[in-house]
Amino acid sequence: MGVDYSNLGQHNQAKECEEKVLEISKKIYGEEHPEVANSYHILAYDYRELEQHNEAKECDEKALVLRKTIYGEKHPEVATSYHSLVFDYLKLGHFIQAKECEEKALSIRKHIYAGE
Q1: Is the pLDDT of residue 64 over 80?
Q2: What is the value of pTM for the model shown?
Q3: pLDDT digits (tens, 9 = 90+) for 15-61
Q4: 60-65: long-range contacts, CB 8 A cutoff, minimum separation 24
Q5: What is the pLDDT of residue 14?
Q6: pLDDT at site 71
Q7: What is the reported pLDDT for 104?
Q8: What CATH number should be reported for the domain whose range is 2-113?
Q9: Full DSSP string of the chain
Q10: Cα 113 versus chain centre, distance
Q11: CA nearest 68: which of 40, 96, 110, 28?
Q12: N or C: which end of the chain has fewer CB within 10 A?
């Protein structure tokens, strides 16, 4: 339902739904589960749309930590988390960190898809 609100541009409602989904996911699956990481990732998007970039960064960082724990360093979901952090860092004016995250995402994707 949060995605539906988001698609309608109703990001406050989307954020509220995604916060509930996150809490339910934690109760059902525990703290270290792909669904919990995904909930943080989606919640970060809603925060970004609301111009709450510190909160978005915190959610993206949590998703990244979980995805690295669950999947390891070289996984598409980890690359996605690094790529999401790029947007957060850019909006916060942290250009060096943004560049580092983009390089990490690219390196993972090259490893996976080009065998580098």
Answers
A1: yes
A2: 0.92
A3: 999 999 999 999 999 999 999 999 999 999 999 999 999 999 999 99
A4: 60/84, 60/85, 60/88, 61/85, 62/37, 63/37, 63/38
A5: 87
A6: 96
A7: 97
A8: 1.25.40.10
A9: -HHHHHHTT-HHHHHHHHHHHHHHHHHHH-SSSHHHHHHHHHHHHHHHHTT-HHHHHHHHHHHHHHHHHHH-SS-HHHHHHHHHHHHHHHHHT-HHHHHHHHHHHHHHHHHHHT--
A10: 21
A11: 40
A12: C
How many whole angstroms separate alpha carbon 10 and alpha carbon 37? 22
CA distances 38 to 17, 30, 67, 70, Å, are 14, 13, 9, 12
Residue whose C-alpha is closest to residue 59's, from 51, 68, 48: 48
What six digits make up the tokens of 10?
Answer: 């109703």
Q: Max alpha carbon distance in the chain (Å)? A: 42
CA distance 40 to 37: 5
pLDDT tens digit sequence for 78-91: 999 999 999 999 99
